[in-house]
Amino acid sequence: MSVVTTTIDFWIDPMSPWAWTTARWLEEVQTMRDIKVSWRVMCLAILHENDETPPPEQFQAWLKSTWLGARAVEAARADSGDEAARELLFAIGRMSNVERNRDLPAVIAAAVSECGLPAGVNEASTTTEFDAAVRASHEAAMALGGKDVGTPILGMPGPDGAAVGLFGPVVSPTPRGDAAGRLWDGIVLLAQTPGFYELKKERTAKVWCD
Length: 210
Hints:
This protein is an alpha+beta fold. The protein has eight helices and four strands, in the order βαβααααααββα. Helix 1 links the parallel strand 1 and strand 2. Helix 1 crosses helix 8, helix 3 packs antiparallel against helix 4 and helix 4 crosses helix 5. The radius of gyration is 17 Å and the shape is globular.
């Protein structure tokens, strides 16, 4: 009996610590369930660009900087393909969220070097060359997940086989082993339930990244 592999789209801004823990969980799930993940970018700067109430000034500067990581990932994809984009996304996420390096230009440069990508990928992070690609990826996530969600977004088969978008799961610390698999099975059940829209719980602890 052949095993059917389910393809999942996962949109993430690598600068988001909560999205990072979800990405790490999804990596774990890939070792336990027959899924293949297509790693795609969102951008927090785009997500918040039409906020009715402007964020605090210091947060505005950080939001603007999230363009750098998203651009670099799309530049890596254009230069070297999807796997290179995934590797760079995870390198940026690790340096930003686990190692807590807040100098994003330095993070991008170090991540590009670590992944063996050409210097042009780093240079592209500070230009608008890949802005259209970043925005198209982000808007695809929002079209699937809806306008009242953030990062990350899972795109997966729904009750009729068509793709549905789910925000999250927002979880910290990253579930491992059987716990990761059980969480995935529960999310599959929710995604395939007709009429399911939302399930939410208050966050009572700070995010823990590993």
